[in-house]
Amino acid sequence: MTSSSSDHSSRDVVFASVRRALGVNGAEAPRRQAVADRIAGHPEGVIPARAQLPADEQIALFKAMVEAAAATLVHLPDAAAVPGAVAAYLRARNLPMSILRGADPRLAGLPWQDEPALDVWIGPSDGRQLAGLSHAFAGIAESGTVVMLSGPDNPSTLNLLPDHHLVVVDARDVTGTYEEVWTRIRAAYGPGTLPRTVNWITGPSRSADIEQTLLLGAHGPRSLHVLLVGEMPAGEA
Amino acid sequence: MSVHITSPDFKANARKALADAPLQQALAKVGPGFIGKRAAAADKLPEFKALRDSARDIKNHTLAHLDLYLERFETKARAAGGHVHFAVDAAQARDIVLDICRQLGAKTVTKGKSMISEEIALNDHLEANGIEPVETDLGEYLIQIRGEGPSHIIAPAIHLNKEQVEADFRRVHADLPPERNLSEPTALLAEARGKLRERFLAADVGITGANFLVAETGTSIIVTNEGNGDLTQTLPKAHIVLASLEKLVPTLEDVSQLLRVLARSATGQEMSVYTTFSTGPRRADDLDGPGEYHVVILDNGRSGMLAGQFREMLRCIRCGACMNHCPVYHAVGGHAYGWVYPGPMGAVLTPSLIGIEKGRNLPNASTFCGRCEQVCPVRIPLPKLMRNWREKEFERHLTPATQRYGLAFWAFFARRGWLYRPATRAAMAVLALAGKARGRFSKLPLAGGWTQYREFPAPEGGTFQAQWAARTSAQKSAR
Amino acid sequence: MSMREQSPVSVGLFVTCLVDTMRPSVGFAAVRLLEAAGCAVSVPRQTCCGQPAFNSGDRATTRALAEQMITAFETFDYVVAPSGSCAGMIKTHYPELFVGEPDWMPRVERFCAKVFELVSFLADVRGVTHVAAAYEGTVTYHDSCSGLRELGIQAQPRQLLASVAGLTLAEMPDSDVCCGFGGTFCVKYPDVSNAIVEKKAANIVASGADTLLAGDLGCLMNMAGKLQREGRSIRVRHVAEVLAGIGDTPPIGQPRPSAAGLGEAGQGRKP
Fold first, then answer.
1. What is the pTM (predicted TM-score) of this model?
2. Does C261 have pLDDT greater than 50?
């Protein structure tokens, strides 16, 4: 769809009234420079001390914050333990032995054959699957948040439609802060560019809209289960 | 729902609210529910105060360069395949949305929570044009099926209790077995989840608000706990974002600062459950996501606020902390304010958007206790801005006559000490004598507003200044 | 009072218009406390700081009253008021009134720097930690909004009250929440104001105290008026009265003992 001509005139009216109110014309070099500098430099502001810990403490904080957000977490020695942990999760909750996952090579390369009873499906969710598995781009210790990037490897619907969302987080991808995640995304996608959707997920879906009673499982997953894999090499935090 | 403005009737609205027992029962939970959680979250983060300063500074910088950040946002969003539309007023915004829906042949649209949608009365417009809007935030869904507006900017149905919700669900979900048990909030939530899941999957267009727009990347951000906003924007053919122009922030780092104060101030969470950054439509190799992405940027009077003494109000990030801490809001709830935005932030913003003539009650209905300013994450001096409205009202002779004459009468004496002292001495002598027996009055001429609900204490008799003068001259003559 | 080698600091007492007219004993309590803290107290001729006009949007009247106030008080070392609301009005808001007036601004700022609320002046500026007073009873203290949020008055009154012989402090729930007075608010929106002071009264009663104290007469009159309308026997006083040891005057809204019924205004608890 292309913008209509009335859109263009509205645009002009809005910009003109903003500039009139600010007493500017938009061509001022120092203002343009200030804006260009801020976007190019994207300065960090106040970074909580909590998010700047040594490696082992950072992992411990991540685990604690994930659980504080009402998610569950298992810490696995390596990625090869993921299929077993997925099967164990489903079994413990009497769920069908079936999981829908993205095509992420980090998931595809796992020893799924070790769990012959587990049906593994690949693709986006249409809402009929009870459990979905994604691989996180990062985990954030500061708030126990997992960072999901949309794309063919990890479709966004997997984050939202299944009742149980299982997320693999590589311990090496656990950062202290949100800002470190932006740095890594810029490195992967180029400056000023994001995938269609970046989902920060902190715990399972919830609502307190009925008498302020906090209930889990509003529209998104009722349970968020983090499979933390491996260790963070010392000195990397 | 309709956004009929009843702000001029604030007093009557307030009286009605005070007499509404279920409402009072619901309001009694607002303070305990929000205040302690916010305080605990703030206490857990030693940098919280510094982050609030940082958040304020980011917003101030952005507002001072708003035209340029808007340009940057527009360029980046278009580069990512999105459409950016500008709307001067509510009518234009409604028409832009309707046009997009029509071009897609939309029959139903799902909606994430958006105060802009309330401000422009979008649902009425869509319905009038044969498109069914379905609110998906649980609170918004509850008020939609009741035909009400929100009473709180982050907890729109905070005025309801679960019995009211049960009755509404039985009325609206008539296809479900009448004998089902809906006595617990869990059952109500499960029913809403089931009903709305069908709507998510069937919708043609998804409309959300935006907590922030990021100029650096052309990204819109929504923050929710339910995940409804994500389902709304991911599943349909098109995602339409409604945002007012002050939602801009420069960079991803800047928005990270603001996100650190938003949830803590709003619900006391470290971070809301879903913070979603959306940039353009579904990419070529994506397996899901909307085929079209539109951002409608609404002015509706805000550019005018940039010029004057209300610019600071445009820092607001809609956390609701001001109303959560407001004794007036606690007493009367959000509907009494008579339009979309209640509480202290509404008391400043509403007159800017609907005019001081209609909105004059709102900045007056404050004790200036200052608790709102104390908790505002972007440090908006809300009492000062409400006082600015009172000044405009006074300058334009909109203040009610009794108040104006009362003030003038008092000011006449206060500005003339030589008259003030004998006048107060005489008045207090009379009052003290009249009140001597009981020490107080249950009725007093011209003080009905006071004595309707309270006793008025009798003065001790004699003014301090007169007694002090007597004491001083007695000491002098004794020397 | 005894004069030591140092000459005492001069304090201009801004008694506030409510104390001046309604409850002069608070003014005398302030004098007693200031003198005990080594201050030479003067009471220049005065009316009002202008807050009612300021909060009603009448800037011109406010500006005129501010000028009158500054002129009357600027010669003293300090200006002290037994009210967080009035002191806050002057200290935090007067400068706003003179923005763009370079002739006035330095003068206003010098003036505002020496304006204090009474109890915080005693504790923070004069270093007073004890008072020589006794009060038999359990008191609860309400933090009036302006004093609390504009001037940071919270610990000081409690610290000084702790030194009063015989006094027990029992905190009420939400002592830092507004009482609903709000100056002209209470008569412009009486229904809303009443809803707020009803909650406050319930919290005061819940404290179990027999006496309510606060540092602002407006709030005190509002709360006393509500408690009395509800038939409560809780005594209501300005904090300065108790700190100055004149807690034997009739409480706010109570008659003098000679005119009273069954000892309503006395010190003893009602049976």
1. 0.95
2. no
In a domain, C168, yes or no: yes
Domain edge (last residue) among C102, C123, C144: C123
Question: What is the per-residue pLDDT across C42-79, written as a single tens digit (0 to 9) for each?
Answer: 999 999 999 999 999 999 999 999 999 999 999 999 99
- Domain residue limits, chain A: 5-41, 51-229
B 116-155 residues inside an 8 A Cβ radius of A: 136-139, 142, 155
Best residue of C15, C18, C22 to probe chain B, by most B CBs closer than 10 Å? C22
Q: Which residue range is the domain that position C22 belongs to? A: 9-123
C155/chain B closest Cα distance in angstroms: 18
Q: Does the domain formed by A51-229 have CATH 3.40.50.300?
A: no
CA distance B147 to chain C (A): 26
Q: Is the ipTM of this complex over 0.90?
A: yes
The architecture (CATH level 2) of B7-162+194-304 comes to 3-Layer(aba) Sandwich (3.40)
C217-229 and C190-206 are packed helices; what angle lies between their axes, rounded to 10 degrees?
Answer: 80
Residues C93 and C158 in one domain: no
Of the listed ranges A211-220, B246-255, B289-298, the least confidently predicted one is A211-220
* One domain, residues C169 and C66: no
Task: State the total domains in chain C.
Answer: 2
